[in-house]
Amino acid sequence: MKDTLTDAQATPRPRKRSRHVALFLAGAAVFTLAGCEEKVDAAAFPDLESCLAEAETGSLFFTADDCRTTFAEAQAAWEETAPRYESLELCEQEHGVGNCGGDPVAQQQGGGGFSFMPLLMGYMIGSMMGRGGGVFSQPMVRTGDGRFSNPAGSQTFATNRGAGQVAPATFNRGPSTLGRPPMSAAQVAQRGGFGSSSTRATGAARGAGG
Question: Residue 83 contacts by C-beta under 8 Å, 6 or more apart in sequence?
Fold first, then answer.
C-alpha cells in the first residue's frame, strides 16, 4: 500500500480543520513506502519558516514550538545519518548537481570538510499522539532523479511540501555515518547507489513504534 503526501495549497487565513485537511489531501503526490499498517498524520516543509507559517493557522496537529523543536531534531538527525562521500562529484552523482555540500561536522571539528553530504532539503513532522508519543521528525534530502528521501535512502517522497498520513516507520532514524570513512565511487557502485536496499535504514524509531 502506498502512502500519500499532497501539495499544500493553504491560504494565509485560518480555516476549520476539516476543510483545511481536505485541501491538503487533494492532488495525491505519492510516497513510495511499502507495507500496510496504521497511519499517522504527517506534514512536510522545505524549511522552518514554512512550518511556522502553517502553525499560525492552527489547522493541523502541531504548534510553532513543535516546528522549532522538530526542525532542530531533523537537522541533528541529518548531520548524524546522511550519507558521506569522498568527493563533491560523487555526492552530486547520487543527489543531483547543486544538492550537496561539505560535511558540517568535519568542518566544525577542524577536519577541513574532507567528506561531502546531500544538503538538508526540508523535513517532515508526524503526530504520534495516538501511539503514546509526541511529535517526531525526519530530515529530507534530494535524490538523483529529483525526488526527496530520508537520509538513509529507504523511503522516497514525491515532494517536500504537503500533508497526509504515513506509516509510523517513516520516522525511523537510519544508522549513523558519523566517524565513518566517506564512501568511494567503488563502494557506491557496489551498494547499487543511494537508496538501494543495501543502504536502507535498520535503526529503530525513537519512540515512534511500527
Answer: 91, 94, 117, 118, 151, 153, 177, 183, 194, 199
Q: In the chain, what are the domain boundaries?
A: 4-197
How many other β-carbons are positioned within 10 Å of the β-carbon of residue 66?
18
Q: 118-128, pLDDT tens digit by residue?
A: 999 999 999 98
Please name the amino acid found at residue 152.
Answer: A
**DSSP-based three-state secondary structure for 167:** coil
Q: What is the mean pLDDT of the chain?
A: 78
Cell numbers for 128, please give them.
504520534
CB of 80 closer than 8 Å to CB of 73: no
Write the pLDDT tens digit of every residue in 4-62: 554 443 333 333 333 333 223 333 344 444 455 688 999 999 999 999 999 999 888 99
Q: How far apart are the C-alpha atoms of 63 and 109, rounded to whole Å?
A: 34
Q: Choose among 107, 138, 108: nearest CA to 120.
A: 138
User: What is the pTM (predicted TM-score) of this model?
Assistant: 0.75
Rounded to 5 degrees, φ, ψ at 6 are -110, 155
